[in-house]
Design a protein that fits this description.
binds zinc ion; two-stranded parallel sheet; 266 residues; mainly alpha
Length: 266
């Protein structure tokens, strides 16, 4: 068997376990928490409509297709590393550099996602590339990977492209920084699809209000033509694509609710 097939087989189990595992852990943990604190989550539900069993089933099954695409990308990235095209910093971690690496890849991914997402909404692209994700009008945490194949490939291209870029400019990342980025990515992804506002009351007017809330992405699913951003509100604000009632809609659901008594505070 040619060498390359041996290498792919070597990495296959690890790659698919990682990509499936982070989806199941993140979506599963959030679903369990929303269920365990159901009175709290009902009080903060963003839409009146509830996701149906068919929605959950579609989201889960198409996420399995995405796991396959992401796993293939993870294998390619590992092969890039083994072939020396992508470098990983193996030295002892310098924590300020580590923090900078994590912040830089998150900011870069936010920009990549915004523009990729705008492209997927072009008339010529939407039907075959992105309509599938928007079948989740009322998203659940399981919609986190619910993509058409084209979108899954576009989403997954970022990590190898970014790692190649930082290797070329001589600033390779620590493997732990990549891991933290991937963990943050899936955590924010399932939070954006929670269907329940998870951020505290007053968040959008706080000093951290530029970090997107669940309502931000939920409005994108229910209305479709605004709020294209992922982690931050920056690009939507710069490009004039933020939903005009974003803050009002957030305030309407992000009531201060006691997690134990699940009653909206006066
Ligand atoms: Zn969209
Ligand atoms: Zn979405």
């Amino acid at each position: 068997m040619p060498d390359i097939f041996d290498k792919i087989l070597d990495h296959m189990i690890g790659a698919f376990t990682f990509d499936l595992g982070r989806y199941l852990i993140a979506a599963g943990t959030l679903s369990i928490l929303l269920w365990a604190f159901s009175k709290w989550s009902e009080a903060r539900r963003i839409q009146k409509r509830k996701a149906s069993f068919a929605d959950y089933k579609r989201e889960f099954l198409s996420s399995m297709r995405t796991v396959f695409v992401f796993g293939a990308t993870t294998i390619s990235t590992v092969l890039f590393i083994e072939s020396g095209w992508v470098n990983i910093d193996q030295s002892a971690i310098d924590w300020p550099v580590f923090a900078l690496q994590v912040a830089a890849i998150i900011v870069a991914h936010d920009a990549y996602f915004y523009w990729m997402h705008r492209a997927l909404h072009l008339k010529s692209m939407f039907r075959f590339a992105h309509l599938h994700h928007h079948k989740s009008r009322t998203p659940t945490p399981w919609a986190a990977y619910s993509f058409a194949t084209f979108e899954a490939v576009s989403e997954s291209a970022f990590v190898p492209a970014y790692l190649l870029l930082v290797s070329v400019i001589g600033a390779p990342m620590y493997d732990f920084a990549i891991f933290i980025f991937l963990a943050h990515m899936i955590a924010r992804n399932v939070m954006g699809h929670a269907g329940v506002e998870l951020f505290p009351a007053g968040w959008t007017r706080s000093p951290l209000g530029w970090i997107t809330t669940t309502t931000h992405h939920d409005l994108h699913h229910s209305q479709g033509n605004s709020n294209f951003g992922l982690y931050f509100t920056w690009w939507d604000r710069m490009m004039g694509t933020e939903h005009p009632q974003y803050e009002a809609r957030f305030d309407a659901v992000a009531k201060p609710v006691c997690i134990f008594h699940a009653q909206a505070a006066a």
